[in-house]
Amino acid sequence: MTDIHPSAGTAGTAGTAGSAAPEERVRLSGPQFQQDPAALYAQIRRRFGPVAPVLLDGDLPAWLVTGYREVHQITGDAHLFARDTRRWNQWDNVPADWPLLPYVQHNPSVMFTEAAEHRRRAGAIGDALAGVDQFDLRAHCERIADRLIDAFSGSGEADLVGQFALRIPLLAVAKMYGMSESATPQLVRDVAISLDVGPDAIPAYLRVQEAMGRLLAAKRDAPGADVPSHLLRHPSRLTDEEIVQDLLVVTAAAQQPTANWIGNTIRLMLTDSRFAMTLSGGRGSVGQALNEVLWYDTPTQNFIGRFATRDTHLGGRRVRTGDLLVLGLAAANADPHTSLDMSADLMGNHAHMSFGHGEHGCPYPAPEVAEVIARTTVEVLLDRLPDLALAVPAESLVWRPSVWMRGLERLPVAFTPTYAGGG
Ligand code: HEM
């Protein structure tokens, strides 16, 4: 079994998340979150209960919430467990180059707003996404998948992470934003660079921001049936700066999780004999695979987070004002202390925590939009390449080294070569 690597942490002040004895904290970093995180979460839960004292990168203390009930409780009480990262009691210990800064550095987007202001911003996003014609989106996703497959179908081999899954969500977002086809490739390139760690990330982010500003100006002149136009005319009277910020959040929030949902679903279907049997013609099983991935290999395995607004108790722990609670979404989904029967067929059971929950959860109908994108593109892939098979042994597939996301580095496959547009 994976070792928890108890750590001798140093950060933290008495009485906060940093108050647990140093030797009793789990280091929330390192390769053990990569290959078999489920075993690790079970081990953490057994040893620490539903709320575990952890150390983030740089030995900063926090709580990892692995209990289903506790994640539900936190996400359902936005008053006690709030979202504005400026509430964190560890800011004095955060170095300027801290690798997790992108998750916690406050910006004026919907992500870090609270209460009435959050309802105003998130409500507008929900309304704008509800305006997306899902039939239209589905037809567009079929075209996206077809074009991507056309690019590799003649070769008989592909990496379905790099050449397929990672490329899809942004192309779908560009369509929902009513962007011109010519502006899309540059945006896709810049968003990809901006989401990576490295010196090019910030300039790329600024280019994406400028592109959103230009898009908004164009939509003001010529509104359409798209997300930015909807936000511009929304009764909540958003400013241009607010809309640009929130278009950036929606873009980033859609990209990596949806790409991983697609990649993890294809992996499941190619490695689990229940799906292999139905690959030729078994369309119904894509929905089942998508749902199982949300339970067992969810794209956002851990999420930062919530901040206690006052001293309280949670899962038998004393939590202090300003403590950071990391939502252990994958761990919560696998929590044996729920009323859910995990041995039962999960088809149709959507009670997982994979989209978060409550006021700050993935805003309705974003999960539906993500499902249209994921389901359509996986179905097209299986239709176009019916003898698709893994090109490497399943055990040699490598997960990306992230505590936060769950997705493969590469998904090498082989199939009978076909020609563009052909079956
Ligand atoms: C079209 C695709 C998607 C869009 C547009 C989208 C949009 C968003 C937005 C705007 C937020 C911030 C909500 C807020 O601060 O109030 C959010 C949060 C979140 N999304 Fe999504 N998302 C998408 C796909 C996904 C997928 C596929 C997953 C995982 C399966 C996911 C999981 C989450 C989680 C875990 C949160 C945080 C929830 C919480 O704090 O309780 N999203 N999403």
What's the SSE blueprint?
Blueprint: E1 6-7, E2 25-27, H1 32-35, H2 37-48, E3 51-56, E4 60-65, H3 68-76, E5 81-82, H4 101-104, H5 115-130, H6 134-152, E6 157-159, H7 168-176, H8 184-195, H9 201-221, H10 227-232, H11 240-271, H12 273-276, H13 284-296, E7 303-308, E8 312-314, E9 317-319, E10 324-327, H14 329-333, H15 366-384, E11 389-390, E12 412-414
This protein binds protoporphyrin IX containing FE.
Description of the molecule:
The strands form 3 sheets. The protein has a 7-stranded mixed beta sheet with strand order 1-2-3-4-10-7-5. It has a 3-stranded antiparallel beta sheet with strand order 6-12-11, covered by helices on one side. The chain has a two-stranded antiparallel ribbon with strand order 8-9. The model is unreliable at 5-15 (pLDDT under 50). It contains 15 helices and 12 strands. The chain folds into 2 domains: 1-113 and 301-353, Uridine Diphospho-n-acetylenolpyruvylglucosamine Reductase, domain 2 (2-Layer Sandwich), CATH 3.30.43; 133-209 and 245-297 and 360-423, Orthogonal Bundle (Cytochrome p450). The protein is globular. α11 packs across α15. The chain has 423 residues and is α+β, with helices and mostly antiparallel strands. β8 (312-314) and β9 (317-319) form a beta hairpin. Protoporphyrin IX containing FE binds at residues 75, 110-111, 122, 125, 249-250, 253-254, 257-258, 261, 294, 298-300, 303, 329, 354-357, 360-363, 366, 369-370. One of its GO terms (molecular function) is monooxygenase activity. Residues 1-26 are annotated as: Disordered. Residues 7-21 have a biased composition (Low complexity).
